[in-house]
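WARN  no MSA supplied for this record, continuing single-sequence
INFO  ligand: zinc ion
INFO  echoing inputs
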Amino acid sequence: MTSSATSLAKQIADCEAKSTFCSKGDALRFIDRSGYPLRPYRCVVCGDWHLTKQGEG
Ligand SMILES: [Zn+2]
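INFO  complex generated
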């Protein structure tokens, strides 16, 4: 059993459940069109960009 691998798989599954963007520009364009108060952040797990509510983190 490799619990660290299981944990990583779970983290990646979490990533796939989120909106994921290849670049900050793509994320910002999506936010602009969505009208929601979101901001992009670089994910340490998958290295792509996800969105979070403004004010968090
Ligand atoms: Zn991620």
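The chain has one domain: 3-53.
INFO  checksum written, moving to next record
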